[in-house]
Amino acid sequence: MRGVVFLFLVLSAGLLCSGCSCPDEDFIGKSRSQIAGMLEKAPKLKDGSFRVLYSLPGCPDSTLVHHFHRNKESLLNSNAAMLSPQWQCFFHEDVGIWHSYRLTFDGGRVVRQEEHRQPHWVYAEP
Hints:
Blueprint: H1 2-18, H2 32-41, E1 50-54, E2 65-69, H3 72-76, H4 79-83, E3 86-94, E4 97-106, E5 109-119, H5 120-123
Antiparallel strand pairs: 1-2, 1-3, 3-4, 4-5
C-alpha cells in the first residue's frame, strides 16, 4: 500500500512540475514594434498567420476582437492595432490548455502583462 501511495505522489509531483512547458516571458517595456517582431518569428497557424486580439475604434477597450496577420508590417500598419491599448497574443497550447498573454500598452510600451488560460477547444484550428 505504501508503494502505491508513493507512486501516486511521485506521479502527481511530476504532473505539477510539467504544468506549462512554455517559458515565462517578460514583455514589460517592449515596444509594439518589438512585440510584432516577436510574433512574426513565433509559431504560426496552419495558414501561416498569427493571431492578435485588439479592440476596434469606437468599441470599449475591454472588447478584444480576433485579427490575423501574416507579418509584422501588416500588424504595425493597422490603425486599430496601433490605437488599441491592449493586445492579446502569443497563443500556444500546453497540456490541452491554451495560454496567451494580454499586454497593456501606455506610451507605446508594454506596462502590464497578464497570462490567460482557456480550454483547448476555444482556439482549436479546424
